[in-house]
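Usage example:
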Amino acid sequence: MQKILSVEHLEKYYGNKGNVTKAVDDVSFSLDKGEFIAIMGASGSGKTTLLNCISTIDTATAGHILINGQDITSLNSKKLARFRRDELGFIFQDFSLLDTLTAFENIALALSINNTPAGEIDDKVKGVAHQLMIDDILEKYPYQMSGGQKQRVAAARAIVTNPSLILADEPTGALDSKSARMLLESFEFLNKNLSATILMVTHDSFTASYCQRVLFLKDGKIFNEIDRGSDSRKQLFGRIIEVLSLLGGDNANVL
Amino acid sequence: MFYKLALKNARKSMKDYTIFFLTVAFGVCLFYMFNSLDAQTAMMQLNKSKYSMMQQLTKIISYISVFVAVILGFLIIYANRFLIKRRKKELGLYMTLGMERGKISRLLNLEMFLIALLALAAGLVAGVFLSQGLSVLTAKMFQTNLTSFRFVFSAGACRKTLLYFGIMFLIVLIFNAASVSRLKLIDLLTAGKKNETLKIRKLWISVVGFIAAVVCLVTAYVLIIQNGMMSLDWKFKSSIILGIAGTFLFFFSLSGFLLRSVQSNKRVYYKGLNMFILRQFNSKINTTFVSISIICLMLLITISTLSSGIGTASAIAQNINGLTPYDVSLSRYAKDTGSLQNTDMAEKLKSDGVDLSKYASDYVETNYYTLGVKFANLPFTEKEIADINQNDKMLIKDFKNSHINAITLSNCNHLAKMQGKKELVLKGNQFAIVGTIAKMEAPMNRFLQNGLTLSINWKKFQPVEKQVISMGLVVGDSSTDYAVLPDDAVKGCPVVTQVLCMNYKHGVTDSTFIKLLDSIYSKDAKGKTTPAYDSQVTKQQIIDESAGISITSSYVAIYVSLVFLIAGAAILALQQLSESSDNAERYSLLRKLGTDEKMLSHALFTQIGLYFLLPLLLAIVHSIVGISVVNHAIAYVGHYDITQSSVLTVLIFAVVYGGYFLATYFGSKGILRQKAENT
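Running the assembly step on the lines above writes:
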């Protein structure tokens, strides 16, 4: 299997000498092509910081991150922007769609930024929209859509450029359970049929249960790791709950 | 604590206040400069006519200043509203902490007062220095020397500036209090989250609107060209109304139209961030088309006053040569309709104590004989009649009603010699037409070509040349053309006017010669005698007068147009800056998606550029039509070269408008970067 992402001894410290907060403390893991992985943890466990480091929005204090064999910790800001646009797709908790553009244009924008020839844009957008079942809302503006629709448009925008890695930060955080289910099924579809590699950060066990592998973070360190193997989604959900109860603390409420 | 907060806020939001500061300082500077003209004249050597010209100008400027103050007042209120809008969240925080409205408005007022005080001081300092330059310019335009250059500070202008701006700020304070009392806490706190309702118009509305706008504008143009801007008839009024309506409609429909037409070209639409830029533009112009239209009209006023004001000045300056062929003209007129008694004016002057040979290098007395015929049949083409405006009508009526006056060939040649012009040669039955009126040249030439003949004493005369000979006969005269006939042809014709034209000897000026004449013929002079002439005009008087008119028209034009320009540019700048904070989120999202900085800067530049450029472009189209009409009207004062004034206009625009554009661009960029660092 081709390695898409490998994180090696990543560290991210905040604060100064006297008072150091280790947000991410010596984390290592890797991700193969076509994997669908979730990172879970309580708030403050460092999962968003980890994602920010991987997504090149933040810089690491120490360690290396290799995406598609390229070490992103040694890139300058100009190269980072290009790398971000060529290799990564983003899905945010708050959808982050441009309110002035229609769904179609929001998806097309990602292609425009990538300098895709205008002739190909139409087909690509329509193709991905069909796969995510948002054909009929393409001409709508974000304020005319439901949250679930918005997030699927955001997913379409993330996948349309065919990135090596899709990063999702609490993608179901702002959705009701039905919309969340639909979105996650879309993710599953993208992962299985288009072999998209997805890294998702979430604190929701239900969301995480759609993945093949779940990493648990606690105080900036990897606490546990579950591989789905041949389990069903329900079984995985049960195992996640077990780990969370081990983690304890403020995750007790999910039980 | 309270003052500390205000002081800190002022320092913190200095960036937001930049445009406000610049505009107030600019306004104060202009205001002081033009109101201190009076004091500046103190260091100039001005004669009586120039002095009264300056007095007139000062008066006009002070009237305009009231108008300027009103415009600047509105501008300050607008700028202040922008600042409140920009700080809604902060004000909401104060309110939740329990600060009363009164205290909040006091806080805001204190901040504004600090900034305004700084701007006032900066503007006054700049004004005091720049006004020195203005006085040098005034002296140059008057062609006088500065007696001694000294640094002039006008306490009067300073007091006036302080008073006017003081009143303005007072009004702004009241507005501030009113707008703070209207604020609702819930709106303040949710200001950032509130979704903007996007007004998306149907395609056909945009298209119909655009077509209607073009129709309105074209009709307005046609009407104003027909009217010639000379009378306030229905054509003029409807042209103005249609023009304004057309401008509003144009901007109302433009963005939709632009969007649709670019959308149909996928290659352009999907190139880089074009799609984003256009949508940005479209989303905002729907809400701001009113202000854009008003700015467009303000720019129109700026461009047209500036170029036509300066144009008038240069037209007058160029026309002056034809009006001043000699140093002095002394004229006697026939009383009633009888013939003038032929007296030797030089002899009469000599007997009164003025020996012309002491003062004149050359002089000649010319008799003007009336031939008893009029220019009534002067042929005009239909196009020329269609082009005739109200002012020309008077000119032509007078011209047609005037009798043809003639001078003798020998007189004419003497005059030509004094001007250094070629002498005329006439055969026994020939005549010539001389004159300097540009408007009459074409019809008069046609008149001559059609075979105009003059019959005097039963003798027919043919024109020697089929065109008017350009030559001025009397200083300051531009009312009619004259005929030149062989010396013996006019025998027996009644003399209506007698003019003595002379050139000064070296070293003689108005202040010696005219003063002498005045001392002899003034009403309270000892041993009062009847004057040897009815009127006197000197070259210097004409030059002074035209310099006065030039200065007045160009200064008034510059003053008014600069104020309009600043106002328009400031409104645009404030609008764009207030949008930048909304845009910041969109731009930071683009950055997250991997757009590189160059692309982002380019998008921002284009977006702000569109806002600045579009009203300017329409205003330029408007003013090309307007100026060409005004040009036509000015042509009767004299020919004028549009390039000089256009270059100056473009220069002023580039500096002021371009300056505001750059300030806006970099300001917005700063806001975007700030936001990016915060996230």
